[in-house]
Known about the structure:
Layout: H1 21-55, H2 62-87, H3 89-108, H4 113-141, H5 144-174, H6 186-189, H7 191-205, H8 219-242, H9 247-270, H10 284-314, H11 319-325, H12 327-347, H13 351-368, H14 377-403, H15 411-451, H16 456-462, H17 465-468, H18 471-477, H19 497-529, H20 547-560
Helix pairs in contact: 1-4, 1-5, 1-7, 1-11, 2-3, 2-4, 2-8, 2-15, 3-4, 3-7, 4-5, 4-15, 5-11, 5-12, 8-9, 8-15, 10-13, 10-14, 10-15, 10-19, 12-14, 13-14, 13-19, 15-19
Amino acid sequence: MTATANAGASVPESGTPALDRRRIRLIVLGLLLGLFMAALDQTIIAAALRTIADDLHGLTYQAWANTAYMTTSVIATALYGKLSDIYGRRPVYCVSVGMFILGSVLCGLSQSMTELAVFRGVQGIGAGGLMSLAFAILADLLPMAQRARYQAWFGAVFGISAVVGPVVGGFFAGLNSFAGATGWRWAFFINVPIGLTAMLLIAALVKLQPNRSNHPVDLAGTATLVVCLIPLLFAVEQGPKWGWTATGTLALFAVGTVALVLFILALRRAGSAALLPTPMFRNPVFSLFNGVNVMVGAAVFGALAVLPLYLQIVKGLSPTQAGLMMLPQTLGIVLAGRLCGPYATKSGRYKVFLLGGVALMVIAAFWFGAFGVNTPLWQTGIAAGLMGIGIGLCWQVMLIAIQTGVDPQFMGAGMGSFTFFRQIGGTAGIAVFLSVFFGSVGGKVADAYAGAASDPAFQSAANDPSIAALPANQVLLQGRGGHIPLDDTSFLKHADPRLAHPFLEGMAHAMQTVFMVSGSLLLLALVLAAIPKEMRRGPAQAGFGGAAKRTEAAKETANQT
């Protein structure tokens, strides 16, 4: 029986035996659920984090909850990709989902921001495999022409989660209790049924995997990567508090730098067996675009970590309202990915989309940098829409370009590298940008209160004993000396607007600094993205490097079947 005689089946480039459409769709459903769980978790937490931090009395520690998650997910991403090349996608994917479920339950049981940060780290260990392994499993099943259509579905999942997550997160954050637990805890517990369903589908349906590697696990690369990332991120996190030239900060940077050198040496020594196989980096498109990936990840994740704070604190929106304000960004991501992905796959033209996407993100970031207390919300919606279109264009075509340049035996590591470098940038971006924000906000608030000394409305409220005596207003009046408690900002709900205005103005100015840094970093990414020449390919070709191998493997499998 020939492969062509099997109705509805296809032979992927990697040489996997053909599967019927129903089974493929069920496998894709399992992958979509895993991606939806990971994406939904991030958007739910982004909307609910202010409420969570206020409840656990640790708004200034919220960066730890994000950084712990991102750090462990970065390390796990690279490791899962390589492990799946060796031991198979199915068992590694199921372990990844199981760790994510465990971390979600523990996060929902957290009693302090310290516990939440630790358990978010457990969640991150699981999250590291959900995206990279989804793309790798799909690459095992389908040829590039069909794969692009399903990858667009993956992009749609992130768009849907970006719509649903803030609304659901805001709903849970607004509940005092639900089914015996504080409302926000269900932002984590909701992952359990979704994750179990995804795990069961993949465990039951994913059977075969071609092109397995027999290399040993790169223990030296894994160990040096851990020793590199943790000190560097910790130094970035604590630098504003300790001082950038403090002994502790410099010591952490030194340890991380030495470990980075050792990590690179370990990769070179291991070669094809490395955590990130070195043959992949011989392709200039793969190398340079992953550099763009790091910069864009840092700029986007860093800016989007601050934007919800602007909407909720400065503009006074509820978590649900803030989530709905991000709808234009979601629509931009979905539409751009759906339109440009298939065209870039068929035509091989991707550079124009990449450059256009980064350029739109530059415009959006600098526009965010002009937002203040009185900026109309419609401007936020338009700027968020531009950012979404840029993200949809940029990451979709980068994924296609990087994916087609990876040999089948490195597919897991290659897809892991795409997520790895993006998460590296995102982790650093969140840590640095939130550190910049919290490091500068005290001075900005003090300056704003100094400027309000000549404002008759402010002076009238400050000198009115009945207003000044209220607890929330007393907290704000301390801001004239720069002493504002940021661990719990719920006092703003009960504060006099005249006294709160300088505080909000100072917060907005601190956020403007973050957005301007994001825009500058995106400008650098735009320059780097313009360097590599576009490698045109015809529709019949499988990809840049190793195209002949993939085509021959597909033909050989078809003949044998």
